[in-house]
Design goal:
Blueprint: H1 3-10, H2 15-19, H3 23-47, H4 64-77, H5 81-88, H6 92-106, H7 112-125
Helix pairs in contact: 3-4, 4-6, 5-6
């Protein structure tokens, strides 16, 4: 569990300041995103041609809830992936990969205005 998630569990009233949503909204979003991710994973597994056994390979460093939390931190604060990596104990490229993977999933659950704001900011820097 990340330090940020531990902090939010101890101080749920701070969730609004840190992420722009209250603690109940955060927990509901995490549950809905995990369920959607599992459904998408099942669809991918059905279509996949496997070389290795299911479940083999390296386990992720971050729990799914922490990956979602990291994505939400990026959407709300727009830090660099290097800062996110340091904060969550992962590499910069891993933070980038996690963000872009979860962005696709969260696009179905979050309001378009939040995601479009990130898209606009990214296109401004290009």
């Amino acid at each position: 569990m990340s330090q940020l998630r531990e902090y939010l569990e101890k101080h749920p009233s701070e969730t609004q300041r840190l992420l722009g949503m209250d603690y109940d909204q955060l927990t509901e979003l995490i549950i809905r995103a995990e369920n959607l991710y599992e459904r998408q994973k099942i669809k991918r597994e059905i279509q996949k041609t496997r070389i290795l056994k299911p479940g083999s390979g390296r386990l992720p460093k971050l729990a799914i809830a922490d990956q979602i939390l990291m994505t939400l931190v990026y959407l709300h604060r727009l830090p660099t992936f290097q800062i996110l990596g340091v904060q969550f104990g992962i590499g910069e490229s891993t933070a980038n990969y996690i963000f872009h993977r979860w962005l696709k999933t969260l696009r179905e659950l979050l309001p378009a205005s939040l995601l479009e704001q990130v898209k606009k900011n990214n296109s401004d820097s290009a």
